[in-house]
Design brief:
Layout (H helix, E strand, L loop, with lengths): L1 H28 L4 H32 L32
Helix pairs in contact: 1-2
Length: about 100
């Protein structure tokens, strides 16, 4: 899964660089350059596809790593045997220490 993130970040960075170069070509050559417009459109599609892939990957990888009761906002207050941290010492969050 880490390799997918690296590939998508690399694709995003390459798309930004190539998109910038194509935009400069369109500025200097004129807006009638059909090949540059098609290239810019293609780079934009690749960029947004990898960006969406990164977002979906981040969403699913964060939910797959945690148990349902450990999700933020689950209201879990039970102390597991051998658990470390402030709960193990009898200190509850939100109370004075």
């Amino acid at each position: 899964m880490v390799n997918l993130s690296k590939v998508c970040y690399t694709v995003c960075i390459v798309c930004i660089v190539v998109g910038t170069l194509l935009s400069i070509v369109l500025i200097w050559e004129g807006l009638n350059n059909v090949v540059a417009w098609k290239g810019l459109g293609t780079v934009t599609v690749f960029f947004f596809a990898s960006l969406i892939t990164l977002a979906v990957h981040a969403m699913f990888s964060s939910t797959l790593r945690r148990a349902p009761w450990d999700q933020p906002g689950s209201g879990r207050t039970e102390i597991e045997p051998g658990e470390r941290g402030p709960h193990a010492r009898g200190i509850r969050p939100g109370r004075d220490r």
